[in-house]
């Protein structure tokens, strides 16, 4: 039985790339439906003279109003400035803002009004009236504590120096800081903790020998263990390692 092998593409004889025909992508007739189509424009032929006389159309220079769009007329509001109308007798004239005086209106309801004052004329003095001058009035002095209607500040007096027996003559008579009696802070403040220092206790006079710190061995205690911990120095290598033989004697 003959064995079959897979076909080799190089042995096949087929048409080249130029043998295949794809739909065009230019124009509308027979356009490839898998590609998007861009807008296309056509050039019209020149019109005959008879057509020109029948329908005379202007060139590309059109004057299109800016308010006209492809959706219709522009809908934005527009305003115009008109001239002032002539006053007519039969028409009602509307007063301006300056013709009103709202401040002259009387208060209505519970509306509060500010105080108002009037400026009167100067009264005429009679010849028999004796009006005192400004310097005829006397005000109470403001120095010292004896002022009835004014608060008085602290005042101090300066006395002369003593001729004998004063501190300025003999400084030894001046009391020191210990000459003043001061109240303990614990009287008017919470009492703070106080500590006292006691004297040194006397050494025992009996003949008993007391052990020092070095007499104790806490590492040898066997109260809570079976025996005290012990350590041993073992060998570094295993005993099963073959020893190194350097030389053999005869």
From TrEMBL:
<feature type="region of interest" description="Disordered">
    <location>
        <begin position="1"/>
        <end position="23"/>
    </location>
</feature>
<feature type="region of interest" description="Disordered">
    <location>
        <begin position="73"/>
        <end position="110"/>
    </location>
</feature>
<dbReference type="GO" id="GO:0007286">
    <property type="term" value="P:spermatid development"/>
</dbReference>
<dbReference type="InterPro" id="IPR010736">
    <property type="entry name" value="SHIPPO-rpt"/>
</dbReference>
<dbReference type="GO" id="GO:0005856">
    <property type="term" value="C:cytoskeleton"/>
</dbReference>
<dbReference type="Pfam" id="PF07004">
    <property type="entry name" value="SHIPPO-rpt"/>
</dbReference>
<protein>
    <submittedName>
        <fullName>CIMAP1 family member D</fullName>
    </submittedName>
</protein>
<feature type="compositionally biased region" description="Basic and acidic residues">
    <location>
        <begin position="1"/>
        <end position="14"/>
    </location>
</feature>
<dbReference type="InterPro" id="IPR051291">
    <property type="entry name" value="CIMAP"/>
</dbReference>
């Amino acid at each position: 039985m003959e064995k079959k092998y897979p076909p080799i593409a190089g042995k096949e004889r087929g048409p080249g790339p130029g043998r295949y025909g794809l739909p065009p992508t230019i124009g509308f007739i027979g356009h490839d439906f898998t590609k998007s189509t861009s807008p296309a424009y056509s050039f019209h032929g020149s019109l005959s003279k008879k057509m020109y006389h029948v329908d005379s159309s202007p060139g590309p220079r059109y004057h299109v109003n800016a308010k006209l769009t492809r959706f219709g007329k522009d809908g934005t509001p527009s305003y115009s400035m008109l001239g002032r109308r002539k006053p007519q007798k039969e028409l009602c004239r509307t007063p301006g803002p300056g013709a009103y005086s709202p401040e002259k209106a009387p208060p209505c309801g519970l509306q509060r009004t500010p105080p108002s004052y009037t400026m009167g004329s100067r009264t005429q003095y009679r010849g028999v009236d004796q009006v005192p001058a400004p310097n005829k009035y006397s005000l109470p002095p403001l120095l010292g504590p004896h002022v009835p209607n004014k608060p008085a500040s602290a005042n101090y007096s300066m006395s002369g120096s003593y001729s004998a027996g004063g501190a300025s003559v003999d400084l030894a008579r001046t009391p020191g800081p210990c000459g003043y009696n001061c109240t303990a802070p614990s009287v008017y403040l919470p009492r703070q903790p106080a500590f006292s220092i006691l004297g040194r206790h006397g050494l025992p006079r009996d003949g008993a020998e007391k052990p020092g710190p070095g007499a104790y061995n806490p590492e040898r205690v066997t109260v809570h263990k079976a025996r005290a911990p012990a350590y041993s120095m073992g060998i570094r290598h295993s005993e099963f390692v073959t020893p190194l033989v350097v030389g053999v004697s005869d």
